């Protein structure tokens, strides 16, 4: 089973939930793998302190001109929708950070004057911690294309009983890359106006992707009832509530795991997992299209 | 006119609450909410929309069913797996999944039957509004849409042109979490970056990545540890490390539950209560102004 932990708003507790859920499952003997897909600011490693066994660069293909074949016709620049190629005085200039790797330039070059070469944009690291198989991605500083790194992190998924994806915050391209093939999304929020606004955006995203989801409310007693009321009126289930316990904040600040420092929370995460499993077993019997065509439906 | 961008690396550290407070303190300023993935500033500044514009992040492809001959060339050449036959099998032409479509136009150009339309897609809206504290430019990105970097650039450009026209002193930009595409779009060419972090190991880790990013783009950078008294030791470590990276600690803001109360009341903490935390933020703003006007961080 593949589940993603996501949120519109940052700093709501995605990483806390992803790591503690993974550890709770591993402690119970479940074969679990955790993917840290927040490649701009990956933090799972701070809490799990994994032993990293391998590191591999992530590359994206970028075009390179074979000068002898190029006639300077300019078709490559015309077909590049991302302004990653310009042709000036019959000379091809390539701007690698802007390249999306679509292949249009090499496909439409009449002289076959392009080859594609790898360009490093980040790395993935694999290892393990406390019985959890672990992979994280790291985007190089100054790079734009985090989805490329996320995609590589996801390719490292083996065939565990449970795969947990810690997603980046937000609702745009990197998040979609992280969650798109999950079987279930747990949307983390907090009971404040910002939390509610961003939860609504995240719900919109989950619906656009046609993925089943439920909500986790962190620091559930800090704000007002608006998140709970919204979930009730939209028939969205709340699978996890974590109170605003100062001891959790302190454990978090030091990079410690909640279920290790405060074992009374093991049951909270177990219950959450039981709800996710029960929900997904119910879902599989009535699964909607998974090709993302829901928007047009 | 000076532009300050408030970012955080890690999400949920209090950027938006602090930007809202700056708005109430700044005088002749314009606000720009560049956290377009999860825009929240409007919830506390209550803008009145005066002008709205469509945002197009680029083109999207669609299949013109009556022209399609089913040759599958589009499917073969699409590198983003965005074109496929629907699961249901009812349709005999492929469909483009608009969420996965990068807008590269390869399908449109390889199609031998003119069966693909390739047009500017509207995937969001941006607004020029007025608030009690001055003009504000903000946006709403459509559900599961990409290219937030381009939207961020448009918002900043608009804010700059209004600031020039109205002869305003400051552009205050609320940025997004992370170090990727929208963050890079929000900081390039700014006069000063203020990083809001929190006294946790995650906050520290993420600050170092952001500091690397701003140094890469050579933008003067200062830092503020928000809720610093939750862990005074880590606050000290963060400030020490920041100095080593040429990032000057410009203030500390204490933890106070009235910040959440202000958010629930739909206002900034400065307008809500004149307590110690408001004084911390005033001191921080004064420090920002001194830095901006002194021309060095």
Task: Explain what the structure shows.
The complex is a heterodimer of chains A (297) and B (297). Chain A has 297 residues and is α/β, with parallel strands linked by helices. Chain A has helices at 14-27, 44-48, 75-79, 104-108, 146-155, 173-179, 193-208, 226-233, 246-253, 258-261, 266-284, and strands at 2-6, 32-36, 51-65, 85-88, 91-94, 114-129, 132-139, 162-166, 184-189, 213-218, 238-242. In chain A, α1 crosses α11. In chain B, α5 packs parallel to α6 and α7 (201-216) runs parallel beside α8 (232-244). Chains A and B meet through α4, α6, α7 and α9 of A and α4, α6, α7 and α9 of B.
Q: Major beta sheet of chain A, specifics?
A: 9 strands, mixed
Encode the helix/strand succession of chain B as letters: EHEHEEHEEHEEEHEHEHEHEHHH
The SSE string of chain A, one letter per element, is EHEHEHEEHEEHEHEHEHEHHH
Radius of gyration of chain A: 22 Å
Q: Report the uncertain regions of chain A.
A: 289-297
Name given to the CATH architecture of the largest domain in chain A: 3-Layer(aba) Sandwich
Rg of chain B, rounded, reads 22 Å
End-to-end separation of chain A: 26 Å
């Amino acid at each position: 089973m593949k589940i993603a932990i996501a949120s519109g708003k940052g700093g709501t507790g995605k990483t806390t939930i992803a790591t503690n859920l993974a550890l709770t499952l591993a402690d119970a003997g479940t074969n679990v793998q955790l993917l840290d897909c927040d490649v701009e600011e990956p933090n799972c490693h701070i809490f799990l302190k994994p032993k990293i066994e391998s590191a591999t660069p992530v590359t994206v293909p970028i075009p390179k001109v074979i000068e002898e074949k190029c006639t300077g016709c300019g078709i490559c620049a015309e077909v590049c929708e991302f302004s990653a190629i310009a042709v000036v005085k019959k000379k091809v200039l390539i701007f690698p950070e802007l390249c999306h790797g679509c292949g249009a330039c090499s496909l439409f070059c009449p002289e076959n004057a392009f080859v594609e070469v790898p360009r490093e944009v980040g790395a993935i690291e694999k290892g393990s911690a406390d019985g959890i198989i672990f992979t994280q991605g790291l985007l190089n500083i100054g790079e734009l294309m985090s989805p490329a790194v996320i995609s590589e992190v996801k390719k490292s998924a083996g065939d565990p009983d449970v795969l947990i994806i810690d997603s980046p915050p937000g609702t745009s391209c990197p998040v979609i890359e992280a969650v798109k093939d999950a079987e279930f999304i747990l949307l983390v929020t907090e009971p404040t106006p910002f939390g509610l606004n961003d939860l609504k955006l995240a719900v919109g995203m989950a619906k656009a992707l046609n993925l089943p989801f439920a909500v986790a409310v962190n620091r559930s007693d800090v704000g007002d009832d608006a998140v709970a009321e919204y979930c009730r009126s939209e028939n969205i289930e709340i699978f996890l509530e974590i109170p605003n316990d100062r001891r959790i904040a302190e454990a978090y600040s030091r990079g410690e795991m909640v279920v290790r420092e405060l074992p009374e929370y093991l049951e909270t995460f177990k219950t959450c997992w039981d709800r996710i499993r029960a929900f997904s077993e119910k879902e599989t019997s009535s699964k909607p299209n998974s090709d993302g065509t829901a928007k047009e439906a | 006119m000076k532009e300050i961008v408030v970012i955080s690396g890690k999400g949920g550290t209090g950027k938006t609450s602090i930007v809202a407070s700056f708005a109430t303190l700044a005088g002749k300023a314009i606000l720009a909410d560049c956290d377009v993935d999860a825009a929240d500033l409007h919830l506390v500044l209550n803008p009145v929309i005066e002008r709205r514009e469509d945002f197009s992040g680029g083109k999207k492809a669609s299949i013109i069913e009556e022209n399609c001959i089913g040759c599958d060339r589009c499917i073969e050449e699409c590198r983003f797996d965005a074109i496929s036959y629907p699961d249901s099998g009812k349709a005999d032409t492929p469909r483009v999944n608009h969420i996965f479509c990068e807008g590269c136009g390869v399908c449109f150009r390889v199609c031998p039957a003119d069966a693909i339309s390739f047009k500017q897609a509207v995937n969001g809206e941006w607004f020029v509004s007025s608030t009690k504290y001055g003009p504000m430019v903000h946006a709403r990105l459509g559900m599961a849409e990409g290219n937030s970097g381009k939207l961020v650039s448009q918002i900043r450009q608009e804010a700059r042109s209004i600031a020039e026209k109205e002869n305003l002193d400051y552009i205050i930009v609320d940025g997004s979490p992370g170090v990727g595409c929208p963050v890079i779009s929000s900081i390039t060419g700014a006069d000063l970056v203020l990083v809001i972090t929190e006294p946790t190991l995650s906050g520290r880790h993420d600050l170092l990545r952001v500091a690397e990013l701003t140094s890469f783009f050579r933008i003067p950078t200062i830092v503020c540890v928000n809720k610093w008294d939750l862990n005074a030791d880590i606050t000290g470590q963060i400030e020490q490390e920041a100095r080593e990276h040429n990032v000057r600690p410009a203030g500390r803001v204490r933890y106070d539950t009235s910040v959440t109360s202000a958010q629930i009341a739909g206002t900034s903490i400065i307008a809500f209560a004149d307590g110690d935390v408001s004084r911390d933020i005033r001191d921080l703003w004064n420090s920002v102004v001194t830095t901006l006007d002194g021309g060095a961080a």
